[in-house]
Design goal:
By secondary structure, this protein is α/β, with parallel strands linked by helices. The chain has 9 helices and 9 strands. The protein has 2 domains: about 170 residues, 3-Layer(aba) Sandwich (Rossmann fold), CATH 3.40.50.300; about 60 residues, no CATH class. The strands form 2 sheets. Strands 5-6-7-3-8-9 form a 6-stranded mixed beta sheet, sandwiched between helices. A 3-stranded antiparallel beta sheet has the order 2-1-4, covered by helices on one side. It starts with 5 loop residues before the first strand and ends with a helix.
Amino acid sequence: MKTTNALISAQNISVVKNEKAILKNIDIEIKKNDFLTIIGPNGAGKTMLLKCLMQFYKPDSGQIIKKPNLKMGYMPQSINIINTMPMSVQNFITVRKKFDEISFRQVVSETQIKKIINKQLSVLSGGEMQRVLLARSLLNNPELLILDEPAQNLDVSGQIYFYNLLQSIYLKRGLSILMVSHDLHLVMASTKKVLCLSNHICCVGKPQQITKDPEFISMFGKDMADIMAVYQHSNETETVQHNNIITGE
């Protein structure tokens, strides 16, 4: 597999737990300005793949190749907030982080959290907390932003808002994004490339192509594939318009 200009790549990685294959011979490559979304059913190995790529978990075989000094930001699915331990949004974003004031002000503005910067984490809504987690992951100006189902606890309007915000940041910063998501209808309108995972790579390609792939149809059903194809086409203009509202363009 070619790795020229890759920020990070996995070559033939496999993970086995309790004699069960979690990942089977995975090849994946993230380059500059990529926006790749991993989709698949529960238990497909999506989060494990992220852990391997970030070198939180060592695969049983294969190798991970990373650009030297690659700066990565990571946004987990959620965090456990202990209500009895007070911490403000600002303290949470900056704790154990090396940053300058300009970078801090930038992420506060980009993620639209200025009004809640002095609030306690324990009183935040789900949408506010996700934006705070996003701000923390951006503070070190990453080249690669990795997100694990970032909108799973949000309602539909919250999901739309978050994904449009993420798209705006992607376009402004010119970074690369690797994301796990189950929000198919929104993913198809925002990402550049989709990888369908079910312990092995079933199919990979542009959103408008992936919905026609037999593996995608087998996994999600023909009705879902048809809906996604129509939604992706009809929502492109709407998403651009929504992005322009967010970015003020």
